[in-house]
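Hi U.,

Before I forget, here's the chain from the pilot set. I'm dumping it here mostly so it's searchable later in email.
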Amino acid sequence: MRNCLGPLAAGVFLLQPSCIANAQAPNALERAIEDAQPCRSVKTKVSSFGISVEVGVDKLDSVKIENLQLSVNGNTGQASARGTLACKTSDEALVEGGFSATAEVRLKVDLTTRKTTDISIEIMKTGGRFGDIVKGLETEVSGTLRRSLAKNLGKFCEK
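Structure:
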């Protein structure tokens, strides 16, 4: 447990919004989400003039963590975060556009085994030209985020 408490405490500092208003550097959680590339496999069909084209909305546009809460009770660590993920088409796409999704993420970690015991992701709000496809792809996007969060939390605990 001692190996995980130091990084968890450091994570509290790293994951908090910066006190400097002009700083735009991503925090550790935002970097973990960027590393997962959750937009990589997102595609939608766009129809125009009777022609249907599949469009990849597969480029990460931005990640912003709005709030984060961490707590430790005995050997269980818990975290809750709310943030927004935005994806877009590549600049060379025939049809340009994107979407944003605001989600609430909750996770529990057993600090003795360093294993994630529970992760849930709920999409609260969507927007953008392709925002309506997000609900249909919620399982795919949240699965990628769950795997990344579990993997990156394990990396924090190993150090």
